[in-house]
Amino acid sequence: MIFWILISVLTALAALSVLVPLTRSRSSVEEAAAQADAAVYKEQLAAIDRDLSDGLIDAEAAEAARTETARRLLSVHDRKDESRPVTVSKLRIRSVQLIALVALPAAALGTYLALGSPDLQDQPLAARLSAPADEQPVELLVARVERHLAEDPEDGQGWAVIAPVYMRMGQPDSAARAYSNAIRILGSRPDWLTDMGEAMTVSNEGVITELARTAFQQAVDLEPTAVKPRFFLALALTQEGKRDEAINAWQALLEGADPQAAWVPVARRELAGLTGETPELLPALRGPSQADVEAAGEMSDDDRQKMITTMVQGLAARIDANGGTVAEWGQLMRAYMVLGKRDEAFDTYRRAEKIFAERPAELARIKDAAVTLGLSGS
């Protein structure tokens, strides 16, 4: 309470410093100016008399000078007389100013006392930060994590938690730094590398820099079938003007893709811009049905692995019987890699090379899939 009373007093003093000069009567200022003018003109009359007595001017010139000076002196006296009635209205102005001087601080204080909480204790930042997380706005939660990271900058999990929040808040630079710290402390993960590269790209207004591209490539090295980093790598090739490589990258990405996936229309548009033709999506390969998924959930790890192996063997049998499309060969290579059967994946790649040897465009897509999976140098 004392604090707000002091604020009111200071407000009044500040208002006084402005109002006091304004309350000075205009008539008093004008009267002082008139007195100064009158003194000048009287001095001029005395000077005329001296010049006449000293013989510096003749009587006719002296009379003319006296007449003009006397006229100006009378004009000064007339202005003084006109300014006197103004003092009455100035008194009213002073009254209004005084009321405003007292009423405004009083109204402000009264409003606060009626609507505010003058008895509520201050809540320092530390207290607000220590409140339960579900009671805090996002900004305070971020400040809470930032304070923790300032005290413990080697908390990799803390950096990983705050990084996506920075992205949602429109701070891609901060997000990229946070992902970089998380990777430095906890090691590389495909999703962190991808998100770090994306943050760098957003920060650079959509242009994929060399650092961002390195992050995407590292993500693909760790997870060859990941779509998001491969998407950005294909986009990087497009931006760099590497037409043939970009076409192969987009085609490999679209093989067997779900037409409903959010990224597919963008990929098709990019590919159409390179080839001049809108690509037709190859139908996605049949995945497990709902019944298959439910059955797999009730199986042991060994039984589940056997079921997956059986499905992959079925795909391989269909390819052997019908020849298979590029998408199916690529799917089979990826399936073997997921199962950890690198040798089988490489053998599948070699067989596909022979089958598509006379079809350069399709062979290029097979090779691109192999490069993505890390099989080309095996």
From TrEMBL:
Annotated protein name in UniProt: Cytochrome c-type biogenesis protein CcmI
Ranges for domain Cytochrome c-type biogenesis protein H TPR: 129-256
Nucleotidyltransferase among keywords: no
InterPro entries: C-type_cytochrome_biogenesis, Cyt_c_biogenesis_CcmI, TPR-like_helical_dom_sf, TPR_CcmH_CycH, TPR_rpt
UniProt keyword terms in alphabetical order: Cytochrome c-type biogenesis, Repeat, TPR repeat
Species for this entry: Roseibium alexandrii (strain DSM 17067 / NCIMB 14079 / DFL-11)
Gene Ontology biological process terms in this record: cytochrome complex assembly
Coiled coil (UniProt feature): none
GO cellular component, one term: plasma membrane
Recorded superkingdom: Bacteria
Subcellular location: Cell envelope
Gene3D superfamilies to which the protein is assigned, alphabetical: Tetratricopeptide repeat domain
Xref: Pfam families: TPR_CcmH_CycH
